[in-house]
Amino acid sequence: MMNVGFVSLGCSKNLLDTEMTIGLFRNNKFNIVNDPSKADIIVVNTCGFIQSAKEEAINTLLEMAEYKKGRCKYLIAMGCLVERYKEELKKLMPEVDLFIKFSEYDNIWEQIESVVGKSDDREQDYLNFLDRVVTTGDNFAYLRIAEGCNNRCTFCAIPYIRGKYVSRTMEDVIEEAKKLAESGIKELIVIAQDTTKYGTDIYGEPKLAELLEKLCKIDGIKWIRFLYAYPESITEDLINVVKNNDKICNYFDIPIQHISDKVLKRMNRKSDGNSIRKTIAKIRKEIPDVVIRTTVMVGFPGETKEDFDELYNFIKEAKFDKLGAFSYSKEEGTPAARIKDQVHPMTKKSRYNKIMALQAEVSEENEKKYIGKELEVILEERSFDGKYYIARSYMDVPDIDGVIYVKCDDENLEGEFIKVRIIESNDYDLVAEKI
What we know:
Structural class: alpha/beta
Radius of gyration: 22 Å
Strand content: 15-25%
Helix content: 25-40%
CATH superfamily of the largest domain: tm_1862 like domain
Strand order of the largest sheet: 2-1-3-4-5
Number of strands: 18
Shape: globular
Largest sheet: 5 strands, parallel
Distance between the termini: 50 Å
CATH topology of the largest domain: pyruvate-formate lyase- activating enzyme
CATH class of the largest domain: Alpha Beta
Low-confidence stretches: none
């Protein structure tokens, strides 16, 4: 029995591909290990979304290639970087034994066997959501409802990497969700490149609201949340489904990217500044305790000081509960890369720093309002010193948002939902005591 180790880079959607690949190896009688020094085969699932991700992927492959001086016999690369640059990588990185593109996932095991050798008792040769090995622990799992994207934002390479938007059938999604619940998963995090477009390609209209209602009926699931909700597709039906179902967290992740109409138009975004403001106001009116997270981009080609000032002032005014920012990255093959009016790197860095400094102030102010309030949290693990449980509430997406440190005694409550009272706050995290 050969040992296989995995490294998964990039987003949660990439992680799901890794989990299905782990399941494929496991079902074909390979042993899965966490230590690359003990692996006969190392599989790296790469990201190639922006320049920094490409550099990380290359460095990771080179790092893993060092293990071929020891036990490792085969190094396999898959994922976004391979999809974009397979032929170039084959020439540049002879240390890698096999590169697998997305378009080759349908016969992925045939590709793998061409390198590691054929097996007489092959049980499976394709990636399957139902056979995935959840790597995010016992409490939550991602649930991907669609692949690809049709939005064609001018800065984004995803349509060129992942292809057109393709929804999974509702029956498929529900079947996987039930299996996850049966395995003990308590929280489902629904993802796609754009969750709000779910169903438009196979049902002729958006079906996210209906899907969420059906997921709420699955026994064992405590929390459901969905990410990547584009503002133009947040309907009244969707808001009402969140408002009226206790299992669905009052949490909206809305990547607005910008607020300046000029910049949004250049980005080929479907919303303008006014519609974004109205959507946020409506959600907050209908769901008073809602948490809204957003993502913004600075330094997009043609972004003037006035455009940036409008974004800065909007963030100050909107007081988003959670906000992430990133600087524009010029990606080859995208329309934005051909725009001549590129922003200087130092200007992009300065604008990024200003946004993040502002959000730190906003977040600190937001966090203070929770002191004295009671929240239901899930206790995930103990802190390093053992004095606290590290917990999350409906306000917190794993590995993205802050956490709640709950003062604990010697009870073993990991994985339990309990009520806590917030007693302290800082910029991004809270401290609580068990009620």
